[in-house]
Amino acid sequence: MNERIGVTILGSTGSIGVSTLDVLRRHADRFRVVALTAHRDVEGLFQQCLSCEPDYAVMADADAAEQLRDRLWVAGRPVEVLAGPGGLERVAALPEAAYVMAAIVGAAGLLPTLAAAQAGKRVLLANKEALVMAGPLFMAAVRAHGAELLPIDSEHNAVFQCLPPDFAAQNLEAGGVRRILLTGSGGPFRTTPLEQLPDVTPDQACAHPNWRMGRKISVDSATMMNKGLEVIEAHWLFAAPPERIEVVIHPQSLIHSMVEYEDGSVLAQLGNPDMRTPIAHALAWPHRLASGVAFLDFTRLGPLEFQAPDYARFPCLRLAFSALDAGGTAPAILNAANEAAVQAFLDQRIRYTEIATVVERTLERVPPHGVNTLATIFADDAQARAVAGEWIAARPSEG
Ligand code: NAD
Ligand code: MG
Predict the structure, then answer these.
(1) Pocket of ligand 1 contains residue 276 by CB under 6 Å
(2) Which residues sit with Cβ closer than 5 angstroms to ligand 2, an ion?
(3) Is the distance from the beta carbon of residue 104 to the nearest atom of ligand 1 less than 6 Å?
C-alpha cells in the first residue's frame, strides 16, 4: 500500500475545517491527519483529537492548550499539545504533513499560512486574508520554496478549474484569457429595501441564503466585502489586473465563477454550494475524489439569474477595488478595519451600515506604505485597528 499523505488542518474546528475532516474521513486509506488547530474551543478540538488521532494539536490560546493537554492525558491519548502562534507555525511546517489546509479566519492566519508556503507544502488556501494582506510576499514565498498553492475559496477554485491546465507557467494573455468573472450571491440583503439596512441584526446578516459558513465571512458576504477581498485574492492568485476581474451577482450560487476567453468562449464551474467540492478538488488535484456532495439535477434547477452589483447597496465592494488600486499596504488596512468593524457589528456595538463607514474612515486616515514587508503590513494592520477602534468607541450617538 502507498504511504498515506499527511495533512495538517489550521482552523480545524471551523466551518472549512469540519468540511475538510469530512472529506478526509471518506478517504482514510489515502490521507492521515497529522495536526489539528483551534483558537479557544477546547471541547471541539478534544473531540476531533479522539476521532482523528492526530500527532499534534495546537490551541492558539495558552490557557486553552493547558486544558486540552489535561483532558487528553486523562483520556490516555498520546497527542502532543502546542500553544500560541509558534505552535501554529510549527505544525504548518512539519515534515510529516505534505498538505496544509489554511482555514484560520482573519489576519491570525497569515503567519502560519506563510510558514506552510515557506516549507514548500501543498497549501490548500481558504484563508483569503493571507493573500489580501500580503499578496506579493506570499506569492514570492510560494515560488521561492516550490509550494503548490491550490485555492479553496469556491470562486477561485472554480477559476482555477476553468483556466488552461498549464496556466501556472503562463499569464492571462498567453493563456488567451480575457476576463475572470467572479460570481457572488448578493447575500441575505440583496433585495432588502435600503432604508431597512441600518436595522438588520447579526443573526439576519449571518443567515446566508445558500452557504453555511463562519460568522465573520457570513457578514462579509452580506456586505459583499467578501467579494471585494476575493477580487484582491484573484488579483494575486492569477496575476490578474483589476480591469480583467468582473463581479457578477448570481443569486442561485450554482455557477461558482467563470473564465472568459478571447475567442468568446466562457468556461464555468458549477455544482451544489458545498465547500467539500473545492476541498476534495484541491486534495486530489490533478485527479478527482468523491466529496460526499449531492450531484446537480439540471432538470430541477430552475432559472439562473445574473445582475451587476449595486455599489450603493454594497459600498464595501467599491472600497475593496479602490484599496487594490491604491496598492501597497492599502488592502491590509482595508482588511484590518473590516475585521474590527465586523466584530463590533457582531457584538452589537455598531450598525450594519456602519461597517462600510468604519472601513472608509480608516482608509482615509491611515496612509498606506508602498512597500509590502511583514513589518509594514503588521504596523499598518495595527494602526488600522486602532483608528477603527477609535471611530467605533466615539461613534456618533443616535438621535
Ligand atoms: P470559522 O469561524 O468557522 O472557523 C475559523 C477557525 O479558525 C476555527 O477553527 C477557529 O478556532 C480558528 N481561529 C479563529 N481565530 C483564531 C486565532 N486568532 N488564532 C488561531 N485560530 C483561530 O471560519 P470559516 O468559515 O471556516 O472560514 C475560515 C477561512 O476560510 C476564512 O478565511 C474564510 O474567509 C475562508 N472561507 C470560508 C468559506 C466557508 O464556506 N466557510 C468559504 C470560502 C473561504
Ligand atoms: Mg468565496
Answers:
(1) no
(2) 153-155
(3) yes
* All domains in the chain, ordered by first residue: 5-151 (3.40.50.720), 154-272+304-315 (no CATH), 327-399 (1.10.1740.10)
Could you list the pLDDT tens digit for every one of the 399 residues in the chain?
A: 579 999 999 999 999 999 999 999 999 999 999 999 999 999 999 999 999 999 999 999 999 999 999 999 999 999 999 999 999 999 999 999 999 999 999 999 999 999 999 999 999 999 999 999 999 999 999 999 999 999 999 999 999 999 998 887 678 999 999 999 999 999 999 999 999 999 999 999 999 888 889 999 999 999 999 999 999 999 999 999 999 999 999 999 999 999 999 999 999 999 999 999 999 999 999 999 999 999 999 999 999 999 999 999 999 999 999 999 999 999 999 999 999 999 999 999 999 999 999 999 999 999 999 978 999 999 999 999 999 999 999 987 664
In order of 69, 87, 97, the CA distances from 46 in angstroms are 9, 17, 20
Collapse the DSSP code of 242 into the 3-class scheme (helix H, G, I; strand E, B; otherwise coil) and give the result.
Answer: helix
Contact assessment for residue 173 and residue 244, using Cβ atoms and an 8 Å cutoff: no
State the burial class of residue 166 (Cβ atoms within 10 Å of its Cβ: 0-12, 13-18, 19+): exposed
Name the closest-CA residue to atom 31, ligand 1: 105
**Residue to probe by mutation, ligand 1, list 47, 105, 128, most atoms within 8 Å of CB:** 105
Dihedral pair phi/psi, residue 100, rounded to 5°: -130, 120
Pocket test for ligand 1, best of 104, 128, 342 (most atoms within 8 A of CB): 104
